[in-house]
Task: inverse folding
């Protein structure tokens, strides 16, 4: 009877692991990292700029945005302009990076990006315009 109970528990555990790796774009336990540097319009490091990274729990409807957004994290640039945000990955795989205090949006606020895009120079080497 103990053997049967152990096999049942192992089967439940393996089933959960299988569902976790096949039913979503992101694992329930994975993280996302967005880091880079921010520069002013002449190329000097921009200190004190606050960046925010939002995610979506559900698949995003690109025309309507996200029905269940959440903030993954925020970061303020240091003297070298460096920022780093690490947090729970969005199960949808979609992210909205942003810069606080910028009039308008630096990136398209309606169009989300995927985690691999956060590693491109467009999101890691940010030059502010006046």
Result:
């Amino acid at each position: 009877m103990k053997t049967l109970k152990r096999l049942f528990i192992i089967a439940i555990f393996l089933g959960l692991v299988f569902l976790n790796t096949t039913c979503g774009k992101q694992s329930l336990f994975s993280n996302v990292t967005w880091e880079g540097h921010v520069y002013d319009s002449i190329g000097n490091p921009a200190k004190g700029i606050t960046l925010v990274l939002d995610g979506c729990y559900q698949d995003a409807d690109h025309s309507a945005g996200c029905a269940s957004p959440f903030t993954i994290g925020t970061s303020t640039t240091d003297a070298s302009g460096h920022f780093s945000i690490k947090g729970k990955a969005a199960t949808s795989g979609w992210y909205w990076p942003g810069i606080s205090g910028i009039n308008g949006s630096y990136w398209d606020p309606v169009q989300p990006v995927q985690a691999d895009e956060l590693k491109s120079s467009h999101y890691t080497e940010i030059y502010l315009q006046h």
